[in-house]
Here is the input.
Amino acid sequence: MSQFWSDRIHQLTPYTPGEQPKDVQYIKLNTNENPYPPSEAVQQAIIAASGDDLRLYSDPSATDLKSAIAEFYSVDITNVFVSNSSDEVLAHTFVALLKHDAPLLFPDISYSFYPVYCKLFDIESMQIPLTDNFEIDIKDYPKENGGIIFPNPNAPTGKALSLEVIEQFLQAHPNSVIVIDEAYVDFGADSAISLINQYDNLLVVQTFSKSRSLAGLRVGFAVGNSALIEGLERVKNSFHPYALARNAIAGATASIKDVANFDKNRQKIIATREKATTALEALGFEVIPSSANFVFAKPPQGFEAESLYLQLKNKGILVRYFNAPRIDGYLRITIGTDDEMSSLSRALKEIIT
Ligand SMILES: *Cc1c(COP(=O)(O)O)cnc(C)c1O
Here is the structure.
């Protein structure tokens, strides 16, 4: 606390990221990072862009990266916005597109950064409870709103909505921007990017942090109607015009072009997720069918999620526990390698039996 803080800062409750401990080598199944490294081609591109040229500013419009993304998704370059992580893309989106008189709507169980941005940017919001089986029900979303945002698949449940339901949202709320946060879409849901030319109120946000193994490079992007993108550019160019570093642009561009490695790794993670789900169920866990690179799992009768989280930590395995209403009975477990998931099963077996 300081007398020099503004009123707004006094009232903030900052986001708490998952632990990134430096003391012990844990098996990290707590922050949805990819267990596989970025490809050799991506690493070489980053090194090649980390030499003498670093004395020069980066390309403020990151044209190479935008055109690679545009080509990959068969959209126009004017439909693409890039910035320094999808958290930053989301921050610009809240300011540019989601601050209106009517409240912004998002699910009560969802990415816990959304309420933080609402406080930071002074945006009215209303949380819409998920149904009892953790589903987003379009009927619960009132007509009167200043925008709607949710992840698809949702976090931390891992449940995905079909494109059909996304279209129902777009049609039911033609005067609101609908933001789909697709951080996990590559692990088993359909991207709404295919709908952006049909709906001028749709913005899709994605990240390189999960399916592309580049959490440390900090690159995210959005795809949508060019007028929405222009709104984001106006905020970015009023805040941080050179948002992406030279090596970040180079690495992310190489990553988009390395389709084979991207497909291989996400298929491996999907296969491991299915095996891990079976293994957890065999131990008596109730596992919500996941379309993401994590599972949300309820421990067997007689075992508390928080205590399992602590006991796993003692055994060198980190998972995520949320001390929050409705979800404090669950663990969110990132899908690692097959070996890491076997270690998890062994550790859980020791604790439970
Ligand atoms: C991980 C995550 C992000 C943030 O990704 P970064 O690009 O690493 O900032 C955004 N939304 C959701 C739902 C996430 O899980």
About this structure: The first strand starts at residue 27 and ends at 28. The first helix runs from residue 7 to 10. The chain has a mean pLDDT of 97. The chain is about 35% helix and 15% strand.
